[in-house]
Amino acid sequence: MPARCPVEGSFLYDKLIAFGEENVLPMHMPGHKRDTERFPWLKPLGGAYDITEIEGFDDLSAPHGVLAALTERLAALWGSRRAFLSVNGSTGAIFAALSLAGENGVLAARNSHRSVFNAVDRLKLHAEYVMPRTVPGRSFFGSVAPEDVGRRLDETGCKAVVVTSPTYEGVVSDVRAIANEAHARGAMLILDAAHGAHFGLCGDFPEGGAECGADIVVSSLHKMLPALTQTAVMHICSERADAEKAAAAMSAFSTSSPSYVLMASVDGMLSFLETDGEKTLRRLAADIAAFRLKAKSFRYLEVFDGEAENCLEIYKIDASKIYIDCTKCGFDGYALKRRLRREYGIEMECAYPGGALAYVAAGDGEESLGRLYDALYAVDRSCGDDRTAAESVRGEGALPAAGEKVYDIFEASRMACTTVPVGGAAGRVCTESVWVYPPGVPVLLAGERVTEECADYIAAAAARGAEVASPSGVFGGTVKVAAE
User: Fold this and answer.
1) pTM to 2 decimal places
2) What stretches of 126-259 show up as alpha helix (H) in DSSP?
3) φ, ψ dihedrals at 470, nearest 5°
4) Are 144 and 190 within 8 A, CB to CB?
5) 481, β-bridge pairs
6) Do 115 and 437 meet the contact criterion of CB atoms below 8 Å apart?
7) pLDDT at residue 196 tops 90
8) Which of 42, 118, 381, 436 has the maximal Cβ count within 10 Å?
9) CATH class entry, domain 277-396
10) Domain ranges of the chain
């Protein structure tokens, strides 16, 4: 039996554990009836606690009891006006946010996650794009410049802005200045902070979106904090966003049968954060700083730090995202990721042409970072001075610029189309998006004209073993383009 949460106030968690011990005959869903003896594969998965909306356990679509208390605690911890729990991940919350704020045009950062562009497509929203700064020689984008947001709002007249901060790679934008640019033009700022749920909880990490003036903030709780996968939150932070309409939107884009196991994990997470969160995150920040300092001893591998390098394209970084650049080593990031798994038993978060990403979160500390350092040190010491190979890898690492926007996504995705080899798609208009996953940022975006650079990047990533996909499924060397 799971231990009770050691902190008082974890109401849903304790209530669920206690209910699992009662001899209540479940003449209701789900079909396994919490019988983990008859269905033993459900026992290690928490099947004994997998219930539906029964008496005393509230309703996520119209919370008034134990779930209302949980969402009030979410809002209090991050300083928002109202919080909505999502068990459909940040994706469900992004759909809800855009349905709430996007009807008068969306200005989306072009490095947004595919969930943003999928929502724009499914909701048939007009969208324009603002390009983040490009970091020379790197496999990821820099920050979104506030002045670029203001300029593009003046050009397009959009009344909603979507920016991702921090990004998957830990690049932070100046959210406060972006919010000011948006609000000065009567636009609402939706902050996709899926990778930044730890922001605002500790002074050693950047401020949270609510503090910085964002109107809606979406965060994945499970990515950085001790909650189960799929849990996320949508914060309503200002009066520009209608909380009642937000409730209706979240109800529409969430399952009507939410997992109580997932929600109880959020309840336990809150109790932990309310008592030990700041201390834990401060210790984590210190451990990360020590790792980064030690990593300066690497001869060929490089731990990227945009702030220390005075990288003009980056406002700030989230130090918990550790990007290991291997462009001086003669092998690419996919090879580095495979080697760390096979030789050292370390699974990295993601690989790029020029490096690999270690995703450090609340469950990490001195021990796990020490093991990562030891493995990287061994890899670094095994590298030679193959400058030709190194220059070859470095040349292939940079991200290509996006193609010209020709149609809105919802227009392009519904056009008559034909399938062509990606190598022959240059100059044609995409009718589907294609991304490398992770991180899931479209390289080819429906409605944009394919460039040779984007087509080559996709083909090269697939050849190196990256997971390339589109709405149709796994990338097979072809792409759908508008029929001529």
Assistant:
1) 0.95
2) 146-156, 175-184, 221-224, 243-252
3) -145, 175
4) no
5) 418, 430
6) no
7) yes
8) 436
9) alpha beta
10) 1-57, 61-258, 277-396, 409-482
